[in-house]
Amino acid sequence: MATIVYGIWDGSVIDHRNGNGEASSLFPSLAGFGEFNPGNPIRAFFGDRGFLIFDRTVSLIDALRRQLAKAEEQSCGKCTPCRMGTALIGVSLTAMARGEAAPLDLDSIVMLGRQMAETSLCGLGRTTPIALLAALTHFRDEIEREIASGVPCPTQYGMDYMTAPCIEACPSKINVPRYIDYIRDGKPEHSLGVILQKYPMAATCGRVCVRFCEMACRRNLVDEAVGIKILKRYVADHQKGPNALRFSRDLIASFHPTEMRVAVVGGGPAGISCAYHLLLHGYHVDILEAMAEPGGMAAIGIPSYRLPKDVLRSETDIILALGGRFLFNQAMGRDFTIDSLFERGYCSVFLSLGCQQGTPMGVADEDSSALGYETGIGFLLKVHDHIAGTRLTRLCGDVVVVGGGNVAMDCVRSALRMGAERVHLLYRRTREDMPADHEEIEAAEAEGVIVHFLTNPARIIHENGRVVGLDVVSMRQTETDARGRRNVESVPGSERRMECSVLISAIGQQVRKGVLSPSDGIAMTPWGCIEAAPVDLATSRPGVFAGGDCVSGPSTLIHAMAAGLKAARSIDDYLQLGQTRFFPRSRMRQILNEHKLLAADCVELPVRLEYRVHHPELDPEVRRTMFEEVETTISDEDAYREAKRCMRCYRIYSVITEQPIPEGAA
Amino acid sequence: MTDQTVTATLDGRTVTAEAQETILACARRHGVPIPTLCELNDIDHAPATCRVCMVEIESPGRDSAQLVASCNTPVQEGMTIRTRTRRVREAQRLQVELLLADHNQDCATCVRHGNCELQDIAQYVGLHTNRFFDRTRTLGRGIDTSSPAMIRDMTKCIRCQRCVTICRNGQTVDALVVTGTGIDSAVGLHHGLSQKDSTCVTCGQCVMVCPTGALGERDETDTVLDFLFDSEIVTVFQFAPAVRVGFGEEFGLPPGTNVEGRIIGALRRLGADIVLDTNFAADVVVMEESAELLGRLAGKRRPTFTSCCPAWINFAERHYPDLLPMLSSTKSPQQCLGKIAKTYLPERMGIDPARIRVISIMPCTAKKDERVRPQLAENGVSEIDVVLTTREFARLLKRQGIDLRSQEPSVFDNPYMSAYSGAGAIFGTTGGVMEAAVRTMYQIANGRELPQIELSQLRGFDGARTATIEVGGTIGTVKVAMCHGLRPTRDLCEAVRAGTADFDFIEIMACPGGCVDGGGNLRSKKAYLPYALKRRESLFAIDRSTAVRQSHNNPQVQALYRDFLERPYSEKAHHLLHTYYTDRSVEMSLTVKQVWEDITMSTMVY
Questions:
Q1: Its Gene Ontology molecular function terms (chain B) (predicted)?
Q2: ipTM, 2 decimals?
Q3: Which residues in chain A are closer than 8 Å to B100, comparing Cβ atoms?
């Protein structure tokens, strides 16, 4: 169990150098600080609000040098105090750490550190010197003792990690401020390059992402979050047109032998992302897809007015450009099994099957075979065929959709476009509780969808094997419970009847039954998902990894793509080393997360209000009739303006450890 | 007080600020000076990167005072602002010292010496030490000397990004990007191209906003001195319409003063053999362009764009090559003068043309670029031998100890190529080329002069203006447009491309205001083009004061056609005074591999 010898955090000094160690109220539990990786104790931790020393013998000078060196490497160089402060202080700390005379004395370092902290433009320059200044204010004797000794600091091991609230919030850990900065710098291709390091489907993500980053954006505390998704879409649209960024096989540094083949089962976002990274690692990858086209839920689950088919296709084509293969109409459980994949010579398998089967609502007289009854996913498949022209579907009369997520929103907006006279959305909770994007809800209402909040179906009415209506009941919110949640309950006597020609249950999806059988040797969770280890996505069967909706249950595109990247790393490790390696960066994130070290709850200085740009959108009356994309890309000018709103909330965290940190895939 | 305003205390005074007004703007309104460097209000530029304009604030509900950049921090209700405390002054002083730490400080060799915003700010903040400078920190940034027009010396860049803003937002050329990180950060061209090969059009507006010597013209004063002191060479000087009204300030004369006579006198004192006027060539251009335009109108080819402005030519060749067939083939006045000075003039004066060197003094950086266009040389002989910007001309005079203020005025004396009409004189400002051309087209169409010479409907100052002119006669109604600055120009080009622009004749000047504010003019510190209207008024005054107001009535132009060119757009004129344009659009496509090799970030996957 780690104990703090001395340090400072958020202005509170901890000093147990004279022995009387007691638990700090700042960090009641130091559980996460014991070891960084097994057998490798953490000797010190440095962050944006101070530092904690667990081992008296740590060289403060060297630890601070590391932090400044990281800041110097990452300084954008635009603002004066950060550009020069990191360079000048860095040179002196490096000299001191070597036991040499430094160009600056400690007072000058304090002067420059203070200038950085007080006058830098962004979070990087403002927060990096805080630990340094705290050390020189409260533990100067330690530093002076080190200098006086005149001997070089012994080598210290550790790692340095720069992040920001938006990065930590993103499942794929995209370096958001960096890609926004590249737009500001006039280099949208570089901006896209940052995104493409994590996944290939940038234009898709720029259209349909649920934006955890924007929820974490500190600009929310000033006016509105930076339009991170809008900017992503802006740069991603550079992926097409005459000046498109080009993918080619020369991106691949070295190719593995041809027998190093990996099978990816399911060509949705998780599978595409995994295949992309494996191809870049030099593997030979086949994607087995049950449908006749790539994209999975992105292809069939997201209507074309939000994600045009050609946009998605240009991104799945990246797999082909990198030498990957799609094998279409190949359904697991029907055309092949995991055993047969290994027999065919694949060395490893990634399962990204998705959740393709709708969940029933569980109300009285629900009959999924009745005419006019649809699941959300089943309906979106019909929408897909309708647009593709392979099978037209015309709606008439009233359509009722049940659910509150983005699939439900896609259903209501598509139903309008397919000729429904009136489209009703039933949701059992309130508007605030709806998991769907609020922009989506507003867009649907603007197009004429009638939303019934606090309303739940109670019974389905059939006539001659056809759905003709349903009984609904009003709900009301209960008192807040001990965990701060409000539940809902039905209001007695509020039953009423709604007529409809089509009823769509869009309340959830699950892994399709029968795709996996016990003989595949893949353990499932009690709720029907594939069991995969959170750290490396390994399933119960060696060499088989799984990720995306089939592991998590219905989730987001960005989660699926993050899982694809993680699986690719694991498969690479498995094939090269026989086991998956430690990920230092994940461990660092875990420490930050467990101790809530990344403070994002206040903005220290007054900031001018500048509201975000919005996508130019067509008139609701026009767009409710069409399946073409309703939002268009923002202009260069708007992109530059929006990019300037980013406050670059970078912070640097470092650990000093006993042993070198194993170099996992970073 | 309304909801729209807030009350604060500024250096002990109670002040009212607009909602969201910055501390800097509020302080300026109240006459409180705050030192600034990167900020340039005239182009709405406040990137808050230099961090010099720090002030101290106390906000309600906060214990301690904070330093903030005044240029982007809003005044808030109840805020106390102090601009001159010791803490503020020390922070400002240290900031400037840090700015110097990676700034190439060869001040004595710098074109901005004595006229530098960085030097000014160092004095303002009372800088008395320079502890941190290390030349090696400047070496990671390059010096781009590829362009014939401009030098980009990034060792002197202070990262204010004014150039990026004027190029991106002002001119919409968007040729510039931020390159590198940390002390290697600077400004470069898209895709790592050299300036010469980039989408830059060399308009030079970036030079007009650069606070230091990082951006400037290629200095060619030594070449001129070589010519002047070579007895074998006959030096022929010309200066542009706008130079005479934008040059006096350098020597302390009021902005807009017409120093034509003093320039002629100064050139004589320098040792110029022959002093000609670009205005004369402007009159020739009117003759050629009018004839060409009438021919194109007769052939139902519309619109026709003017071709006087070399930055516009670059813009069209780089960014709108599909519009090139619509450009007038008439060479610019500078090039026409050079060509005539190497053909007609030596013939008349009995000089060996091989001895002639033509030196232009231009308010323009793009003219240097134009000079070296391959299609403007014949048998290896250039029409123009060297172009000096107005700034270099000032430097040349100073190097030769000539003070324009005490210089006696002189007059043109060349009987062949120095007389000009009022029409040629107004070429230097937006709408001037159009007005000059209309005066002549009217005469061609009707056989008599336009009754009202000055066309007020063409004289506005909006970025894009349109007019419908009854020329009458065989021509009838002519629909015209005039753009100055490349932002309105781009909008118009897009409209022409889309087929929604209905014009016969379009005048384009790439610099806002036209040549009177071209990128070769004297620099203004902390201001963008402050003298545009004064210079323009002086040009109109010159027009009013000339005896001859129409190009076709310029007696020397009449003699040129009578004795040499036969008639406008004759075969000979076509050979000598017309040119062609080529598609020089830049391939702007990268591979992911190239981009990844260039990306600097901590989360590199591959």
A1: 4 iron, 4 sulfur cluster binding; ferredoxin hydrogenase activity; iron ion binding
A2: 0.93
A3: none
